[in-house]
Design goal:
about 170 residues, mainly alpha, about 75% helix, single chain
């Protein structure tokens, strides 16, 4: 049985998708200018990225950027090979109301929640002040909450489609 054609609706009418669109539009430059800075060889790191990294370390005391452990570098490589292409695709996919958005964003949300949770758990063990931990938490916790919200939203969308398909 052929499924019904997917109707495209304006992103302005899909408030959660508009929020996700804004997130990915901001998230992409953050990956490129902050996170991936750890992967650039020092001799080839643009001064803008070094300046941003120094500001970030001074502001948040994020030990993962001062002396990154291997597992954290693995997360950064995941951003390079998965988050960047996914973010580019998601920006376009959200604008076009692509039917695959729920599937891809569920995977993204799950991976992001797990990696962000690991970063938060690790940061709670660092020998930095409580004030510094709170400051860092104000950066990490919103990412965790967004990924959890997105994951629940996308799971619900997929579940609704699957239940609807089963009924048909």
């Amino acid at each position: 049985m052929a499924s019904k054609a997917h109707r495209v609706s304006s992103i302005w009418l899909r408030k959660r998708d508009l929020f996700y669109f804004a997130f990915f539009t901001v998230h992409l430059p953050v990956i490129l200018l902050v996170d991936l800075g750890l992967l650039y060889p020092p001799a080839f790191t643009p001064s803008l990225i070094t300046t941003i990294r120094d500001f970030y370390i001074e502001s948040y005391h994020d030990q993962n950027f001062i002396d990154p452990p291997g597992w954290f570098k693995g997360f950064i490589w995941m951003e390079a090979y998965y988050h960047i292409p996914l973010s580019i695709w998601a920006i376009r996919g959200l604008l076009q109301d692509d039917a695959l958005i729920p599937l891809h964003l569920l995977i993204y949300a799950t991976q992001t929640a797990v990696s962000t949770c690991a970063c938060i758990a690790d940061a709670l063990t660092w020998d930095i002040s409580t004030t510094q931990k709170i400051s860092l938490g104000q950066l990490y916790v919103p990412y965790l909450l967004l990924s959890l919200f997105m994951g629940i939203d996308m799971f619900g969308r997929l579940q609704g489609r699957l239940v609807k398909e089963k009924v048909l």
